[in-house]
Amino acid sequence: MTPAVLVLAGPVTRDEVAGLCEDVRALLDTTGAGVVDCDVGGLGPPGLAVVDLLARLQLAARRAGGRIRLRDPDPALHALLDLVGLRFESVVESVVDGVEMQREPEQREPPLGVEEAVEPGDPPV
């Protein structure tokens, strides 16, 4: 099932947030896909208002039994979301031979940490 797309054009005011949350819930209800792709390319420079908007949209989607994914996010937006501890799945789009293709980003293994074992008789450090 193809996810619905919600295009977010900025700047978004606080008064518009409740309506956008309702739009996410309505899209989840009508499509039944369980996912809404939020096109964030037109939001402009990321700031805390954008973080607040995305957090509220994700909360509305989760309460409706779904989730949102970010389409066309600015790298600075990802950095800001990481800084505040929010993780969002992104949709990667590419054009091949004039056909727009949508795919999930590759899943990467977490970096390996160094595990150090203490053997009996090792001198203290």
Compose a concise summary of this entry.
This protein is of the alpha/beta class and 125 residues long. The protein is built from three helices and five strands. α1 (14-31) links the parallel β1 and β2 (35-42).
> SSE order, as H and E?
EHEHEHEE
Distance between the termini: 58 Å
Beta strands, count: 5
Structural class: alpha/beta
Based on Cα principal axes, name the global outline: elongated
> Strand content of the residues, in percent?
25-35%
Uncertain stretches of 5 or more adjacent residues:
94-109
Total helices: the number is 3
Strand order of the largest sheet: 1-2-3-4-5
Whole-angstrom Rg: 19 Å
Helix content: 25-40%
Average of pLDDT: 81
Largest β sheet strand count, sense and barrel closure: 5 strands, mixed
